[in-house]
Amino acid sequence: MNTMTAPPKESRFVAGSSDDAMTLCVLDDESGMIEMLQESLRCLGYSSIGTTNPQYALELIENGRVRVVMSDIKMPGMDGLQFLDQAMQRDPGVYVLLMTGYYSLDNAIAAIKRGAYDYVPKPVDRSRLKKSLDELADSFHKRKRIRTLQQQLLSDLEFHGIVGRSPAMVEVFEMVRKVARHYTNILVVGATGTGKELIAKSIHQMSPVAQQRFAVCNCSAMVDTLLESQLFGHMRGAFTGATDTRPGLFEYANGGTVFMDEVGETSLAMQAKLLRVIQNRKIQRVGSPEVRRVDVRLIAATNRDLRAEVLAGRFREDLFYRLSTIQIRVPSLAERLDDIPLLIQYFLKKYNQTYSKKIQGLTRRAQTVLLQHAWPGNIRELENVISCACLTSVNEFIDVDDFPENLTKPAAHNGHGADTWRPLPLEEVRRQHIRRVLETCEGNRVRAAQMLGIGRTSLYRFLKRAEKKSANSSAN
Ligand SMILES: Nc1ncnc2c1ncn2[C@@H]1O[C@H](COP(=O)(O)OP(=O)(O)OP(=O)(O)O)[C@@H](O)[C@H]1O
Ligand SMILES: [Mg+2]
Questions:
Q1: Structural domains in the chain plus CATH codes
Q2: Separation between Cα atoms, residue 165 and residue 171, nearest integer Å
């Protein structure tokens, strides 16, 4: 009888071969027992790796070579339950079948509660083992298939790193595809965190100048003088601190694309300079009389209503028309709730990699919380929620405890809180709800009807009725 923990090399007994099959690890302190079990497994059609060394079995789990371990309970050094705990820590998705010569129902239940997949008496009954393993293989393959399908779906629905399959996003992708090949200026509008920069990047990547540079300038982060020097460059000594001569972003990205984020934040003086570049395609470095020609595509983005800014005298009308030859509106996350599951999966994959985690997904109630949130910060907010949850969660599935409080305990003053509830007539609730959805969709009735889950004609009918009612009440 071999009661020693043999070094890994001598203690490996590899049986079976198929790479695709579910490979098991048999862990026991008796090599005779390992051989017997491996023979049984071979007859049942399973390949296995045998070892007397629990550390080696843990390594196999950690590097993903096995996801099923049959482990003895009584072993010197580390018993089966300790092994179970450590295995679960390394990979919460691992299946551990514990084998014992001292079977009792209470112990079986305790082991299963602790995370074991099964608890089988020794000597192991072959038909019982077959049933247990066949069930396991079935769920193992189903899960694998679902994961592959999800991955496939995810990559099919990724458009230059932009995830989305909602009708509103598909419309955006079509527009991007259409306009990318033409070298015109584009205005991307949308609320904060909706992905305006990603859209701008994808336009560049799909354009004929994709090989050229894509330069980003955030207009809100700088005072005018700094912004001017960043965009147009400066000569040495042009201002205090200008210790060297530098080209600006327009020269740097000459032949390519300049992305100007938050263009609505620029001053009127700066807007006049931008207009000159767009009209004449010429720039001057700060402090230099020399005029240089540049050929760039300008993509500007804003989360303001630029038309309203024009009316208020804060944005030049001529620049607005120059910039917005083509306008792309990126919908808010509230307008594309059907993208949330895909985005969650995408960010889980991203942050599992970043933080070396193996989080499988979200619990059902966690998913419900995310689907009910209003997402004022849009995709950026969702990304932050998933990345924090990924970092802090110690379980295989993210649960509501891993979310920030504002998601699980919405503030009372947000208008949706229970304390603002009033016993309104159903018709009034309907009217208010439709009005809010229309506001969210910025008056786009087709999209509002989609969000409301009703036909377009039903929405028109409802609006007509509401209009008539309000006309009648104002006439009385
Ligand atoms: N559809 C999407 N798929 C995957 N990631 C996305 C998507 N949309 C946005 N993101 C991610 O969300 C974050 C915010 O996106 P981005 O910076 O493009 O938004 P923005 O509209 O420019 O925001 P702001 O108005 O604040 O400048 C980024 O990390 C981006 O990668
Ligand atoms: Mg941005």
A1: 13-151 (3.40.50.2300), 159-329 (3.40.50.300), 336-410 (1.10.8.60), 422-475 (1.10.10.60)
A2: 10
